[in-house]
Amino acid sequence: MRFATLALLAATRAAGTKSSLGPAALAPQQQRDAAIDALRHHVNEEVEQRHLRDLLEDEARCNACTAEACGLYLDFARQKVTVHTIDLLINVARACNVEEKRDAMFRGEVMNPTENRSVRHVSLRATRGDPYAIEEAQDTLDRVLDFARAVRSRHVRGSSGEALVDVVAIGIGGSSLGPACVHEALASEYASEADGRRLRFIANVDPVETEMALRDLDPASTLVIVISKTFTTKETMLNAALVKTWLGEQYESHMCAVTAAAEKARAFGCERIFGFGDYVGGRYSVWSPVGCLPLALQYGVRPVRELLRGARAMDLHFREAPLSENLPVLLALVGFLNAFIYERDCRAVLPYARALSLFPRYVQQLEMESNGKGVDVEGNALTEPAGEVVFGEAGTPGQHSFYQLLHQGLRVVPCEFLGVCQGDGENHDELFRNFCAQADALALGDDGGGDNHRRCPGDRPSLSLMLDRVDAFHVGALLALYEHRTAAQGWLYGVNSFDQFGVELGKRLAGLIESGDAATASTRALLARYRAKRVARMEALAAGGGGASE
Ligand SMILES: O=P(O)(O)OC[C@H]1O[C@](O)(CO)[C@@H](O)[C@@H]1O
């Protein structure tokens, strides 16, 4: 356990009772340090040594470790907490001004100081009367939905006069992961709304991705959406250029753009443009035309409205529920406890629902790009790491793969299990049994009948989150829950969750390589080999061979 602020704790104790140095008497940083030290001390003395097997026997404690909102039910009884730990965690949230920061975010204050931006994705799912609604965003949504209606009713035609039916969405990072995750989530429940339409995503600059996405699509009946907030992202621009060529000379009527840089989109050849403000970060943009346009084209207006309604319901809950019942805050506190106090570097997100199979990837960007920071919001080096390595996959296949490490490895990986109530038949029942059983197995463990090879130590923390069903409303609520959790956990860490300068360096070095100025001898050698192999392949082709045995 790290004790970066032990000195302050010692000073606090030396100065007398807790109340003599209570929160009100301390500066903000000291309040935070004191609250964290109190939590650390309690965990160290009263919780860490207690096995989850014992903690789970206390029924009152189990009941205290639940909360519910918007059709999502949280059970964190399998976390290494007592009822008192929850109180101390909430003290940490208060000392970090989580409520004040949340309110400032909703008011539209600058929450991203390094880029001098407000953070207003909540306004995208507001209704017109909400105090934090933005008229321009509401107008854009209306335009998006009108356009989707027109396309779906076959009134929008391509250059040859055919109606545009299938959609290819080109974008990367936040301009892809959210929309793709929701698309996958809705595919089964809203199959009849899709009515045979196809929605494909192209993110990776690997040309195989484009080839696979376009395979069996007809350019004459395909609408292409180039999604890029900046309209400068190299991968997206290269993929868009490839697809533009595939569309042929009359590409204009087949293309539209979603961007905050309309001029650049126009220069690329897109006339139909749906914008959004720079107050919406890429990874928080699924509620803008970034997500609403492809999803409304695929599933129609109603599911998109439901998605926004679910997210808005979570916004209201986040704004109004007391901290002890507030789902995003509780998730953030549990995450912080595991990462910061118990020093667990990884976290697994494990949906027991095929529909949520892209959710771990979505959360991965959301959290790792938001909270994977090395300095605090003022630029001071952090003394303890922020952010966790997030990974995961859907359903029982993981149990036959990486769960081995979860059960017996010495690395403890806190898990988040997502289960769904709705679902029929023996297979779904089995899925749900596994959702429950894995959480218990991790917590309880087993002595393996005295055989060390078979022994599972247990005492591995997890939480269980249950959705009533995977429909657009609950998916909206779920994504908004994780967005707010990410922001709240960022405030606990003290970082700016809304910039991402770390991703720039790799882009710059790729640019240097392009201009013949590779940064290291190792890279120069890799490039030389790459080029030599290409030359050999060309020579083999010219000589009539396939180059297969080069
Ligand atoms: O929408 P854009 O500007 O193409 O950016 C795509 C993604 O690239 C990133 O900036 C990271 O490189 C993400 O934050 C963003 O979601």
What would you note in describing this structure?
Belongs to the GPI family. InterPro entries: G6P_Isomerase, G6P_Isomerase_C, Phosphoglucose_isomerase_CS, SIS_dom_sf, SIS_PGI_1, SIS_PGI_2. Pathway: Carbohydrate degradation; glycolysis; D-glyceraldehyde 3-phosphate and glycerone phosphate from D-glucose: step 2/4. Keywords: Gluconeogenesis, Glycolysis, Isomerase. The protein is of the alpha/beta class. The protein has four domains: 1-49, no CATH class; 64-112 and 321-501, Rossmann fold, CATH 3.40.50; 121-308, Glucose-6-phosphate isomerase like protein, domain 1 (Rossmann fold, 3-Layer(aba) Sandwich); 520-550. Helices cover 48% and strands 11% of the residues. The chain contains 21 helices and 13 strands. The strands form three sheets. The chain has a six-stranded mixed beta sheet with strand order 1-2-13-12-10-11, sandwiched between helices. Strands 6-5-7-8-9 form a five-stranded parallel beta sheet, with helices on both faces. Strands 3-4 form a two-stranded antiparallel sheet. The chain is globular, with a radius of gyration of 25 Å. 6-O-phosphono-beta-D-fructofuranose binds at residues 172-175, 228-230, 233, 236, 282-283, 369, 500, 503. 6-O-phosphono-beta-D-fructofuranose is lined by residues 172-175, 228-230, 233, 236, 282-283, 369, 500, 503.
Keywords:
single chain, 550 residues, alpha/beta, Rossmann fold, five-stranded parallel β-sheet, binds 6-O-phosphono-beta-D-fructofuranose, carbohydrate derivative binding, glycolysis, G6P_Isomerase_C, gluconeogenesis
